[in-house]
Task: structure prediction
Amino acid sequence: MDRDNLVKMANRIASFFEAMPTEAEAQQEVCNHLRKFWAPTMRAELVAEIDAGGATGLHPLVRGAVTRLRADLLAPGA
Result:
């Protein structure tokens, strides 16, 4: 999938959940959403883009969720 489109979609998800009471809760909800509604290949592409130092313009909430909850995002069967 196109990198810019992944970032755009992830940022929309983050914008929705940034109203959560704490950053940790917001990150968890972003992670939950990505697991439920994104294909494993999309999640892997997002993680790889972040690992490569890319994903410029990515909402800090998404970056934090991917960094903190990486194992949950990439778990088999997730």
About this structure: DSSP finds five helices and no strands in the chain. The first helix runs from residue 3 to 17. The chain has one domain: 3-74. The CA atoms of residues 72 and 78 lie 7 Å apart.
